Amino acid sequence: MLREQVLDQTLNLLEQRGLATLSLESIAELVNVPLSDLRRFWPDAEALLYDSLRHHGEQIDIWRRQLLLDETLTAPQKLLARYKVLDEQVRLNRYPGCLFIAACSFYPDSEAPIHQLAEKQKQASYQYTLELLQEMGSDDAQMVAEQMELILEGCLSKLLVKRQLHDVAVARRLAEDVLNVSRCREHGALA
Question: How far apart are alpha carbons 57 and 96 in whole angstroms?
Fold first, then answer.
């Protein structure tokens, strides 16, 4: 049994069926591994969920770092790249990022480790956006970053329920509009 395979299969199952349906038994059956083998690594479903979300967060962090280091893309392209990836993943019936939104709702206590892990990922997303906006010389980078993150979180929340690809396109267009308005504002066009 490869740990990453179990975590990836768990993430896929969570994206398809939601957090409430997770059980060690369903994962053992999915990955064709005895339940006792899974229990050696994860004593219960919550431990597996935490580890899966942590693994997913690491995947997203690597993607962000790669984007930040990509010198062929401009800062605005790096900001909007998340929607391209989200579009590609939704077409594959995958919903990256949605699980963190769901985890905050499913574990509303801000002291719960899973809630904290999800909140950490949301903060990392905000920092990524803020860093790129500051690189662009955005007039009010913090406010624009909050607007951009609100758009992304709204898109992810809606994908949790509706799972419609069109919502990704709408969110991307809205994010582009926010970026364009912020550029106009910094050049005095809206004064």
Answer: 10
Distance CA 97, CA 160 (A): 10
Model pLDDT for residues 17-35, shown as the tens digit of each residue: 999 999 999 999 999 999 9
* Type of residue at 122: K
Q: Can you identify the CATH homologous superfamily of domain 3-186?
A: Tetracycline Repressor, domain 2 (1.10.357.10)
Q: What is the DSSP string of 2-17?
A: -HHHHHHHHHHHHHHH
- Annotated domain spans of the chain: 3-186
SS3 43: coil
pTM over 0.85: yes
Question: Is 151 in contact with 175 (CB distance < 8 Å)?
Answer: yes
